[in-house]
Amino acid sequence: MSLREIDTACWQQLETGAREPDSGFHILTLASVDLQGKPQARTLVLRAVDREKRTLEFHTDMRSPKWQALAVNPEVTVLGYSAKTQLRLQGTVELHAAHSAVAEAAWQRLSHRTQQTYAGAAPGSDIGNPSRNIVNAEDNFGVLIIQINLLDWCLLARENNQRALLNYRSDGALTNSKWVHP
Ligand SMILES: Cc1cc2nc3c(=O)[nH]c(=O)nc-3n(C[C@H](O)[C@H](O)[C@H](O)COP(=O)(O)O)c2cc1C
């Protein structure tokens, strides 16, 4: 496979990941740095991919700790592993808060059941102290759009492990790419 072919295949796999719940890259890990400067990683569902712009879309509750942390430090890595392939995607997050145009459009596409997951108590809040506040689910719904600037592709294959680095410009164009030792 050429570097161009790897680029195309990776973004196709990510698109499939967003579309098909049983596919390998549907569930990814988002790593970021918290307000104390410590690394944090958590599992997120990949919701949408724009292969031209090189963006990934995730949804989250704005009351979760990651929202504040990402507002202060938007540098992230998204990690996925499927079919002997590791994708490490470095990028910068754009936060789209509740009722913004992007959040509103994403909200309309959610099922009622998924919408209601944003109506409960704040993520990470104490079970022993149930909140009696009535919350409007949509007020908590935020969208993360991650602009990817580096894709680190690594394939494990018995005799022939392979790894490549692909760099993207902020408009999504592939600027340079190279093979590296795995
Ligand atoms: C399979 C699975 C999928 C998840 N998907 C999401 C998601 O799409 N968005 C989200 O905010 N949290 C999701 N979570 C919960 C997060 O992993 C995490 O516990 C939560 O967002 C709080 O993270 P934080 O404390 O870093 O803000 C998911 C958890 C699991 C186990």
Automatic annotation (TrEMBL):
InterPro entries given in the database record: Pyridox_Oxase (IPR000659), Pyridox_Oxase_Alr4036_FMN-bd (IPR024624), Split_barrel_FMN-bd (IPR012349)
Domain of life: Bacteria
UniProt keyword annotations, A-Z: Flavoprotein, FMN, Oxidoreductase
Pfam families, per database record: Pyridox_oxase_2 (PF12766)
Pyridoxamine 5'-phosphate oxidase Alr4036 family FMN-binding domain span: 11-96
Cofactor(s) essential for the protein: FMN
PANTHER family in alphabetical order: PYRIDOXINE-5-PHOSPHATE OXIDASE, PYRIDOXINE_PYRIDOXAMINE 5'-PHOSPHATE OXIDASE 2
Protein's name in the database: Pyridoxamine 5'-phosphate oxidase
